[in-house]
Specification:
Elements: H1 3-8, H2 40-58, H3 65-72, H4 76-79, H5 81-104, H6 106-123, H7 130-144, H8 148-158, H9 164-193, H10 195-216, H11 230-241, H12 244-272, H13 280-285, H14 290-298, H15 300-326, H16 332-360, H17 365-429
Helix pairs in contact: 2-6, 2-9, 2-10, 5-6, 5-7, 5-17, 6-7, 6-8, 6-10, 8-9, 8-17, 9-10, 9-14, 9-16, 12-16, 12-17, 14-16, 15-16, 15-17
């Protein structure tokens, strides 16, 4: 349906009449979805499942890196490329995919992305060599690029502003469940049947999520097709990159993900070594801690309501730094507590920053979200690679050092944002 026709058939639209033919008609009620309203639960569950599939596929090899290192005879820094290639492919293609979603629709692009990604996911277990495995993972990441930015743009268009942080938090919660279930399932399956069978199981799980997503997601009612002309796209991107607030949010997302990517890429290697020496199944179960992220992401809206956006970011950064410090202990309970705090802080910070991007962008929301996702997954690739190199050079303390530097960056950027906001308030008062 053309955008003009679709707009005329939206709920609350009225036929044009002259002033003498009808009395004044007030503005139509907001027809976008809200908690408790029609379609909201279906939409939330559909995007939750999309988040599950995305993170389960994207990080399907992360808990299996020691096994992959053993089969192909490579070090941790080389095996980590099976994660970095996927997140890097997503980072590179998220902006072009967002442009396609502006033209062909959010739901169409998300469906196509999941279809290609799950197909590649079923091929990954048959990779004959390390280069082939890395190449397949890069293609899979590129395919998944159509999902994150399109999902947040869909929510910004279809959900009322007051419910947006909560709705995006639920999508991020799906990410955490996908990341957790993928790692827990692969850990136990790999312990019995090897990493290839484990990755194949994740591919089958993602197929089920993709089918349910397509059946459940309501058709968009507020989407207006945009242009695919490169000049228009570049102009939109340039406008977003010239917005200081958006740039700060992009940097915050990248830095938070640098911490998270580094910690969870290396933690399996640390826990297989002394003094822990844990089996693969137990290491996979460590990722049940992702449930903490499910809670912290879904409650991010209330945190912002209580502390404000910058206060919530300070809280998330402080929680993450405390977790990093605790994880240095050679006590398994303290390491697990550290991972709980790192996970809770990361997902809260990510939900706050990503929802702030959607609220800040007044046009080209898919591109604004795509730039955030690109920065976010560049941070993931950097964290996976640099965290593994730091572990190789200085052990777990090296990985923690990289994470603390990234958290310091988050806090510093948030301080700059606080000062900029105060300066604007003084100008407005003057």
């Amino acid at each position: 349906m053309p955008a003009s026709t679709e707009a005329s058939t939206r709920v609350g639209a009225v036929s044009p009449v002259s002033a003498t033919e009808a009395p004044y008609v007030p503005d139509a009620p907001d027809s976008r979805m809200a908690p408790g309203g029609p379609g909201y639960r279906r939409m939330s569950f559909a995007l939750f499942l999309a988040g599950v599939a995305t993170f389960a596929l994207l990080y399907s090899t992360q808990a299996l890196l020691p096994l992959i290192s053993g089969e192909f005879g490579v070090a941790a820094s080389e095996a980590s490329w099976t994660v970095a290639a996927a997140t890097g492919g997503l980072a590179l293609f998220v902006l072009p995919m967002s442009a396609l979603s502006e033209r062909f629709g959010r739901r169409t692009v998300m469906t196509a992305s999941l279809a290609v990604a799950v197909t590649v996911g079923l091929l990954v277990p048959f990779a004959p060599s390390m280069p082939a495995l890395v190449a397949l993972r890069a293609v899979q990441g590129a395919a998944l690029a159509g999902l994150p930015a399109s999902a947040t743009a869909y929510l910004a268009e279809e959900v009322r502003p007051k419910a947006l942080v909560t709705a995006i938090g639920l999508f991020v919660a799906g990410n955490s469940v996908g990341g957790m279930s993928g790692r827990v399932i692969t850990g136990w399956v790999a312990q019995e049947w090897g990493w290839r069978v484990a990755v194949g199981v994740i591919g089958a799980l993602a197929v089920a999520c993709a089918v349910a997503f397509r059946l459940l997601l309501p058709a968009p009612r507020h989407f207006t097709a945009g242009s695919l002309r490169p000049r228009v796209l570049l102009g939109t991107v340039r406008a977003h990159l010239s917005n200081p607030l958006l740039c700060r949010l992009y940097a915050i997302g990248a830095l938070f993900m640098t911490v998270f990517g580094g910690v969870y890429t290396v933690i399996g290697y640390r826990l297989t070594e002394a003094p822990f020496s844990l089996p693969q199944g137990i290491i996979g179960s460590i990722f049940l801690i992702y449930l903490v992220g499910t809670v912290s992401a879904s409650t991010a809206g209330r945190l912002v309501g209580r502390l404000g956006r910058r206060g919530a970011l300070y809280a998330a950064g402080g929680t993450t730094a405390t977790g990093l410090a605790l994880s240095l202990a050679n006590s398994l309970p303290l390491v697990l507590l550290g991972l709980v705090l790192i996970t809770g802080g990361f997902f809260a910070g990510h939900a706050v920053a990503s929802s702030a991007v959607s609220k800040t962008a007044t046009h080209g929301r898919a591109q604004a979200s795509a730039l955030y996702q690109s920065a976010y997954y560049i941070g993931s690739s950097a964290g996976s690679t640099v965290g593994a190199l730091a572990f190789h050079a200085g052990g777990w303390a090296g990985t923690v050092g990289v994470g603390l530097l990234a958290v310091l960056g988050v806090v510093s950027i948030t301080v700059l944002g606080t000062r900029a906001a105060r300066a604007q308030q003084r100008l407005a008062t003057a």
